[in-house]
Every structure is written in structure tokens, then in C-alpha cells.
Design brief:
Length: 415
């Protein structure tokens, strides 16, 4: 074929395609900014207990709409501006609205009941009751409601609370006059509470034992700069009905140590319900100098001079385990630079010093990993010069196995 013929053929194809597109322009809908409000995203919300109902959410630019739809027949409920949609049992659906109204709908009959003054809620007691709260300022009002919307129990002036893992009981701190009282209550047809401790400042950190056999709590204050401080911790054994305090005057507190500022991730009751894991802090021996002057940098230091100065002013943070009934408190980590990972059903811990091989050009320094027996305190070497990447070391959810990557292979260690 000659070049001129090829050129003519290309022009013919081009113009025929253009004509085709021009013919389709009549069916094109031009969208503008005024149409944006009609766009939405679809999100699954959950299924009822027997999967006879499903819920989903359509999220628009300015608002959301919840839907509950039958999986057996053509029946759908819409809840405009609803949020926190949850199924209750086989055929009840609850959600919150912006005016702090909780609505509970029987999807089979279509009847609804409402409860006002609710800012958050959660099914408890196997879904047979609803626990709700209303936040106002620094205090909360708590409610327990039936699925018919009837208020079975309410309490004002609560500073903080924690539901147990089984969702059949609660620990809370309530202000009564000048005192703050810590109380326990179990959910049921009749809800009664017992007082287990009193404090001059609010209790705002709680940790339940997974089966609900014991609970630990502490008062933590925060200043305007966000610095957290606490001087005491408490452990309550529900079976013995006994409260154990831990403060700076406690005999089991190691000399030169004090309670570190408590955070939820390092303040937890052991699964056996007999111990409490928490952090201690070495009492700072020297404070950070405020006066400018000569700085002496030591080449043998693991960290730079400014970092060492700040840590010297803060004191060392050490992870520990407290056994209230035995009146013992043992350090798991022996220096601030040690990290601790609980394993072996919390009977042992992996301990490593991330400062060990500093200074180094590696972004993740190597480390020697030890296994410490929490009952005897004995420590034995597990891995030498192991990689500093956290992704290469993992403890199984049950704590019975350790997986690690070394020499090009994954290994599994049975504790």
C-alpha cells in the first residue's frame, strides 16, 4: 500500500471516530458542584444475631443515613442522620441522633421507643440491656436501660468508669461531697453498688482482669503542660473483697523508686488476677540545668548530651510486676533502655536493651534478647545480636510461642 493511501485511511478513521463521539455527546450528563450532595459512599454496618437483618450506611457530604434491611423479605427502615447503629438480639435495632436521642426500633413490628439525654451507649449483659452515658463538662451521667427504653438505673457526677470484659459489670468513680468514691456494680434486674475505695482526687485509670475477678485503678492528675502525675495505685480482689494500696510509703516499693505516670498500655491486671503490671520511675538525682554554659560530650555515651540530660532529669522508667497478696514488687526491666514483651501466659518476659550496641550507623540497632522468668527472676540469653526490626519478632496471642526471623528463615520457639 502506498503512503498516500495510508494517510487517507487514517483521516477516514479519525473523522468517523469524531462523528461517533459527537453523536454520543447528546447522552452525556454534565455534573456540577450542585450534584456533589447526591454522591455517597456505602459502608456495611453489621448483621443481627440470626442474620435475618442487615444494616448499612450511606455516607453523604454533609450527613449519613443508616438503613436496616431484611434478608428474608422486602422490608427496609431508614434512619436519617443516625449514627452508632447496633442490632440488639434478633430483630431490634438501636441508633443515636444528633440531639442526644437514642432510638430503639423493633424491626418486626415497626414500633420505636426513645430515650433522651444519651451521648453514647453499648449493649451489655449479652445484649439484654443497654448501658448509656451522657457527657456534660468533666462529669458523666450513667444509665442502664431495658430494650424497651425504660431506665433501670442512673447515676450523676461520675468522673470516670470502666466496663469489665464480660460487659456484665462496671467500676466507676463518683463524687460525693468532697470525696471521690470508687464503686462496683453488676448489671441485672436489680442493680446495686458497693464502695471499695475513697480518694481525695478523682480516680480515672482502671484495668479489669479479663474474667472480672479483680481490678486495679489509680488517680492521675495532668497539669496545664500535659504532664501526668500519680502517687498511688490500688488493687481490689473481688473474691477476697480486699483492697491493696501501693504508694510511696509501701514497704514493697524498691528504694529510690516511685510510681511512674500511669498510662493504660503499661497498667494492667495479669490474666491470673493476682498481679498488676505497672511502671516505676527512679527518683531523679539531678535536674536538667536551666543555665547556659559549657557542655561536655563524652564519646563513650550511648546517647547525645541533650538526651542524657533530659533523662537524668526525668529519672529511669522501669516495667515491674506487683503481687499485692504476697506484698512483693519485682522489676522486670532493670534499666530504662530495656524494652519488655510479656509472653508465656505472662509467666515470662522478653527483655532487650536497645542501647546495647549504640552508637551505630544502623537505623535499627542489633540487640541481645533475653527471657526472664517472672517467678524466679532468672534471665537467660535467647537471641544474640538480633535484628532491631520489630516486625521480625512476634509473640503468639496466647503467649505460648515466639516467632522470629533470622539467617533468612522464620523460626518458632515454644515457651
Amino acid at each position: 500500500m502506498k503512503i498516500s493511501n495510508i494517510f487517507v485511511l487514517c483521516l477516514a478513521v479519525f473523522f468517523s471516530g469524531t462523528a461517533c463521539f459527537q453523536g454520543q455527546e447528546k447522552n452525556v450528563l454534565q455534573l456540577g458542584s450542585s450534584d456533589f450532595s447526591q454522591w455517597h459512599s456505602l459502608f456495611a454496618n453489621g448483621l443481627s444475631e440470626d442474620a435475618s437483618w442487615g444494616a448499612y450506611k450511606l455516607s453523604y457530604e454533609n450527613t449519613d443515613t443508616l438503613f436496616a434491611r431484611s434478608t428474608r423479605y422486602a422490608k427496609t427502615y431508614a434512619f436519617p442522620k443516625g449514627k452508632q447503629g447496633r442490632f440488639l438480639g434478633k430483630s431490634s435495632f438501636a441508633c443515636l441522633f444528633q440531639n442526644n436521642v437514642l432510638q430503639i426500633t423493633d424491626l418486626e413490628t415497626g414500633t420505636s421507643v426513645e430515650a433522651s439525654g444519651i451521648s453514647d451507649y453499648q449493649p451489655v449483659k449479652g445484649g439484654s440491656l443497654l448501658f448509656a452515658e451522657f457527657l456534660q463538662g468533666s462529669t458523666k451521667t450513667l444509665f442502664v436501660l431495658s430494650l424497651e427504653g425504660k431506665v433501670l438505673w442512673s447515676l450523676k457526677d461520675v468522673t470516670d468508669y470502666a466496663l469489665n470484659d464480660n460487659l456484665d459489670g462496671i467500676a466507676y468513680c463518683v463524687q460525693e461531697g468532697p470525696a471521690y468514691k470508687v464503686k462496683l456494680a453488676s448489671f441485672g434486674n436489680e442493680i446495686k453498688s458497693i464502695t471499695i475505695a475513697e480518694s481525695t482526687i478523682p480516680i480515672n485509670v482502671f484495668s479489669w482482669q479479663p474474667a472480672g475477678r479483680s481490678i486495679a485503678f489509680a488517680p492521675v492528675t495532668t497539669d496545664q503542660k500535659g504532664k501526668r502525675t500519680n502517687t498511688a495505685a490500688f488493687f481490689y480482689d473481688l473474691s477476697r473483697k480486699k483492697l491493696y494500696p501501693l504508694d510511696r510509703d509501701s514497704a514493697e516499693l524498691p528504694e529510690g523508686m516511685e510510681l511512674a505516670p500511669i498510662f493504660l498500655h503499661d497498667f494492667r491486671v495479669a490474666d491470673d488476677g493476682e498481679r498488676l503490671f505497672l511502671s516505676l520511675r527512679g527518683i531523679a538525682k539531678r535536674q536538667l540545668s536551666q543555665e547556659p554554659g559549657l557542655q561536655i560530650w563524652n564519646s563513650s555515651d550511648k546517647e547525645s548530651y541533650p538526651v542524657n540530660q533530659i533523662r537524668a532529669g526525668e529519672g529511669e522508667f522501669l516495667f515491674s510486676v506487683w503481687h499485692p497478696a504476697k506484698k512483693t514488687l519485682d522489676l522486670i526491666g532493670t534499666k530504662m533502655s530495656e524494652e519488655v514483651i510479656l509472653a508465656g501466659n505472662q509467666s515470662v518476659a522478653l527483655v532487650y536493651d536497645f542501647h546495647q550496641y549504640l552508637p551505630t550507623m544502623s537505623h535499627h540497632p542489633d540487640r541481645d534478647i533475653y527471657i526472664r522468668n517472672l517467678a524466679t527472676g532468672k534471665k537467660s540469653l535467647f537471641l544474640e545480636r538480633f535484628s532491631g526490626f520489630d516486625e521480625m519478632l512476634s509473640v503468639s496471642p496466647g503467649g505460648k510461642f515466639i516467632a522470629y526471623f533470622k539467617d533468612g528463615d522464620w523460626w518458632q520457639y515454644s515457651i
